[in-house]
Amino acid sequence: MSGVLNAVFCMVIVVLLPSHVAASESATGSIRGTVRDSKTDMPLKGVRISVRDGKQGAVSGADGVFIIHKLPPAVYTVTATMIGYRHCIISDVVVKPGRTYDVVMPMVGQSVMTDSIVVSSGYFNSSGGSAGTVEFGYEEIRRSPGSGGDVSRVLAGLPSVAKVNDAKNSLIVRGGSPVENTFYINNIPVPNINHFPTQGASGGPIGILNVDLLRSVKFSAGGFAPQFGNALSSVMELEFRQGSREQTHAQLDLNFAGYGAVVEGPLFTNRATWLFSARRSYLDLVIKAFNTGTSIAPRYGDYQGNISIDAGKGNSLETIFVIADNSSYSDSTTARENEQMIYGDQYSMQSTLGMNWKSVWGGGFSTTSLTYSSTQYDDEYFEQGSALQLVRNRSTERQFTLRSIHYFEIEKQVSLEFGGEWQYLFPDYQNMYPNVRNQAGVVVQGPSFVTSLREQMVGGFAQLSYPLSEFLTWNAGVRADYFSMSNHVAVQPRSTLEVHITPQSRLSFSIGMYAQRLPLIQLAAMQQDATVDWLRASHIVVGYTSLLDEDIQFRAEAYYKHYTDAPTDSAVPYRFLLDESLYGNEIVLPRVNLQYNGIARSYGFEVSVQKKLKNGLYGMASFAAWRSQYKDLLNVWRNRVYDNRFSLSVECGYKISETFELSARWIYAGGTPYTPFNTAESRRINSGVEDVTIINQARLPDYHSLNIRVDKRFNFESSSLVVFLSCWNVYNRNNVASVYWNSYKNEEGRQLQFGLLPIFGIEWEL
User: Fold this and answer.
1) CA distance 177 to 184
2) Under a CB-based contact definition with an 8 Å cutoff, are residues 512 and 521 in contact?
């Protein structure tokens, strides 16, 4: 404990050191960028680029590339202007000594004003779509307070994402569940972006991806385009950046996610680059030193990278890999120390390897990816006290995916996008669930299966964007997906109407249908059931977006989601099975003999005001109110387990100087529903027995927490050092994560979320 505290104290001293100790007067860096049409992705020639209020600049060449040399280390705003396009402004461009910052500037063609007048879209370079789609740049992700370098935790401040548990970063989007999300990196699908992945869902305790490899993150919370399938709630599009084209660079890291390094440089020629990251955790030291709610010390590591080749004539090839290994071991003694009702061993290995070919041609582009993904699980759990074996999971989930998208601009403002996707699924399972306690506390025989799946999914889509008038744009599309196991086709029409009220504000109306298959482990448990069907949801979304100033944007959105064909089980007629990952001890049990008649709904509204970095200030304030419910087999509407009902989030930051920054995030959210125990029966058998007459009618206390962060940058002649100190849950709020039956005390217990948790980090860029 004392060693860790001494390290934190030293970090505080370093952060508070005056900047002139490390700064170098002669240190300079560069900005290199590519300017492209936001629709066709064609490079734009002759675009004027300026930084430092126009004091320095450049003009893009025939390939859309520009470069500005000899910039003092600082945080810049880059502006691109060209007749016929809206101004494109990129903030948070951090120039470092001896380094070149790569930036991509998508310029939006003007559709409202005449070409002779240049209209600014400010710092929010939206090219249309749902108001629920937000985008973050690298620096916004890196410095986000309370995120610990985890992309999913960055999104926790959005009004569309519910707040459930500090210990997990599961995305709960507009009343959905972690099962309903999907992820892409440079057009390459990734099953899960978290360590210790929840099998059959998309959550986990901490992210895999190193934010230092990211260029941007785009998150769609509903009403997304037909190019995305097999998701009911959200799509996250991540973009890996390319490595340095000039010379080899290295970065050494020590932070919440672990310790590691990033190495990058040119590959043979400046037309090819490579980028590699490797990290290992030290969370076991943090757990021993601070109150994190557990003494179980998991170990994990991740390895990821990108090889990018510019093949000339608008062609490029990228190869991306993401690998992670995770292990956690606990015995009966450790479980007793933590008052946990289960213990055992957990191991998983995740790997994704994908290649993406992109070809830009006159009036459009094509992008095609081939991906192999595999997740191996090796888990064994026991019940504390009785030592009954609950789970023996030996499974490997694998898939190949071929995905191709084509965009063609038929004429100005009229475009067609189409494509297809093929997926081959070949998981193997040797799974046993020998002892399961039912709702009455009685131990019964659970399912066991040794099986393999060999199934295919095929999908295709098309979308036409057409201006109905100078102020109206209509996007109409359809997607169709076929799944060989069910022999069913899901046809999903989707449509969006955009009303351009002024050059700075617009209304959008979206309606669409969405389909998703069941998780693989569920399919394996019930592969003899020929009635398996798609999960389905319909979205209705109305949004309004307005640019209040060039750096301030207002958003408001109302939505309604209606679920049909959700799986149900007559053995638990009052449950909604898509939410099962939060029940009990979070062991997701596969079920057999399912029906597909489940109905659910969620509806609500969201408002937010976001300010991009300008004059040293940035931040976002948001509020959301919603309800999320399901109808059980008894025809009773009940709360889904993620139904916070409301959330309020305020995040802000201030750059005191070019090298010193303060930021904070405060979140207040309603308590989530839970089912109280039948106290008398639970005490009689010393095991939790739920009161099924009041399913999900009780609520945990409201959640609120404050996270703060301090960043300090030191610039040297040809390198820089970033030091940050963050503190989660500053006022040590006892937020409740869940309610469980404590068999040691034979009474109800409450598991708390993170207490006061200091986090520090160092990034040394060489």
Assistant:
1) 18
2) no
Of 685, 679, 760, whose CA–CA distance to 723 is shortest?
760
Q: How far is CA 325 from the centre of its chain?
A: 19
Give me the torsion for CA of 670, 224, 538, 453, rounded to 10°. Answer: -100
Query: Which of 313, 309, 322 lies closest to 356, judged by CA?
Result: 309
Which residue from 646, 648, 609, 642 is spatially nearest to 628, judged by alpha carbons? 642
Q: What is the DSSP letter of 681?
A: H
AA letter at 591: R
Instruction: Kindly report, residue by residue over 219-260, the tens digit of the pLDDT.
Output: 999 889 999 999 999 999 999 999 998 889 999 998 776 899
pLDDT > 90: what percent of the chain?
53
β-pairing, 29-37 with 100-107? parallel
CA 125 to chain centre: 21
pLDDT tops 80 at residue 631:
yes
Residue with the two structure tokens 């025939």: 62
Report the C-alpha gap between 764 and 758 in whole angstroms. Answer: 20
Q: Which of 108, 125, 102 is nearest to 551 (CA)?
A: 125
Return d(Cα 145, Cα 652) in angstroms, integer. Answer: 9
For residues 199 and 377, the answer to whether their CB atoms sit within 8 Å is yes
With contact defined as beta carbons under 8 Å apart, do 632 and 583 qualify? no
Over residues 85-121, the pLDDT tens digits come to 888 888 889 999 989 999 999 988 875 444 444 455 6
How far does CA 628 lie from the centroid of its chain? Answer: 21
Q: How many residues in total does the chain contain?
A: 766
Residue 399, token pair as written in the block: 């898939």
Sequence-ordered list of residues with C-beta below 8 angstroms from that of 514, at least 6 positions apart, any chain: 231, 232, 492, 536, 537, 538, 539
CB atoms closer than 10 angstroms to residue 529: 15
Specify the pairing of strand 455-467 against strand 617-631.
unpaired
* In contact, 483 and 455? CB cutoff 8 Å: yes
Beta strands in 632-754 (DSSP E): 637-639, 646-657, 660-669, 673-674, 698-699, 703-715, 720-728, 736-742, 747-752
Residue closest to 700 by CA, chosen among 582, 552, 576, 563: 582
- Flag whether pLDDT at 584 surpasses 90: no
Q: What is the mean pLDDT of the chain?
A: 87
Query: How far apart, in whole angstroms, are the C-alpha atoms of residue 422 and residue 425?
Result: 10
Tens of pLDDT, residue by residue over 662-681, are 999 999 999 999 999 999 98
- H or E stretch including 462? strand 455-467
Place of tokens 């202007």: 81
pLDDT value of position 14: 44
* Token pair listed for 324: 């992670």
Q: How confident is the model at residue 13 (pLDDT cuts 50, 70, 90)?
A: very low
Based on C-alpha coordinates, what's the Rg of the chain?
26
Q: Could you report the per-residue pLDDT of 30-82, keeping only the tens digit for each?
A: 999 999 998 888 999 999 999 977 778 999 999 999 999 999 999 999 999 99
Contact 188, 369 (CB under 8 A): yes
